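Re: folding output
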Amino acid sequence: MTESFAWWDWPLEISPHAEKRMADRGFSEIDVRLMIEEHASVREDHEEGRWIVVAMHGGSEWEVVLEPDPVDEVIVLVTAYPVD
């Protein structure tokens, strides 16, 4: 499934917003990398150019918001949050 995304294997860059959310929501860069790697599904976000990765973390479903940057060929982690 993810092989259809040309950007899927680009390096991950953590946005300042995501760094703050990591502290607020108690997850690490390692956690988010595992969520991305072991994802359940990927879908387009309502915000153009962004994608939602649905994954499990700590026994709960999470959504990880990614924004591929084709100029720098990186994937920007926008945020991640547990789904209630």
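--- second protein (sequence, then structure) ---
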Amino acid sequence: MLHSSNLNFASNCDPLNTNAVVRSLKAEFSRHFAGEPSFFRAPGRVNLIGEHTDYNEGYVLPAAIDFDVRIACAKDDGSKLRVYSVQQTEDAELDLAESDPHPRHDWTDYIRGVELQLRKGGTSVRGANLVIDGRVPMGAGLSSSAALEVSVSKGLMELSGQSMNGVEMARLCQRAENEFVGARCGIMDQFSSIFGRAGHAMLLDCRSLELEYVPLPNSVCVVICNTMVRHSLSSGEYNKRRAQCEEGVRYFAARRDGVTALRDVSESLLTQHGDSLPDVLFRRCRHVVTENARVLRAANALKAGDLATLGKLMYESHTSLKDDYEVSCQELDIMVHLASETPGTWGSRMTGGGFGGCTISIVSRDSVAEFKSRMSREYKSATSIDPEIYVTSAAEGAGILT
């Protein structure tokens, strides 16, 4: 494995794509602000397997995707961050002189959280104008928030004339979301956005932050199916699951030395002592423990080109998320079931925090067209909802657009 502290930001985007992106961003920036901006991007991510394991210091197998957040930014003489969002079609001002800013509970909180963490770490954040063009579907479980955090932190660091390695930036963006936004996410999303590599998934140890790139075979595509629903209980239930995991850690730590996270609980330890846990806590712990094992097996299967085993583990992961962790929903379950019955599908599961959002399916390249057509038709028939289906590839991580 490569240790992540030795890795720098991934290389810039393909220049053929970059030229058009930069022209569009520059034109948008000129409509709202003066000055000559710099340009940055950071991708969203999809997680092949390893859900709700990152904040338990476990293993995940994500990939950056070719949906990203792009920003144009330039210095301003004032003491404010002035921001325009292309997707929200609205602007906002964040006063850097404000002594005790509070969350507004909107998209600007991710920017404010990053700015506060940068200043807390000693970075001199200056007044700036930013245009944000987000191309990651929001509320779909594809880490649009992490892509926004990483792109903004990259831009503000550049304007300050300072630098930061990728691991530090991932931790900073995670703290911004944990402490200011109030979402107790793990580090997977921010790390994936920074360290993604084209054509590869990333086997990440969320404790040591050791990283191994695992090639994705050219014979398959990653297909993301958006259920187009996001149930309102998602954020509160996410934090509740994390608290339940912490309660499980306290239980096992009292029975075995060295347990500081569910990562340290083996399947044999769970079997030996789990009977005394309340049923709900036992099932929460069982998901995390078995999911960690599935991630390692899935990475090995992927390295061996064993798509059948990879797919089987993906289906098992979804069942565990549905029954033990209870973060799926009817729409996600329908999506996975339909995928399992569609020719050319190797495996499918929900991806992201749950309660809506997306599924990820590994589909043979020559079956993608049929997969899209059948999934759209059958999901609409079952739910009366038109899904969005994205065929994507593993992409490069955050970088400068030149």
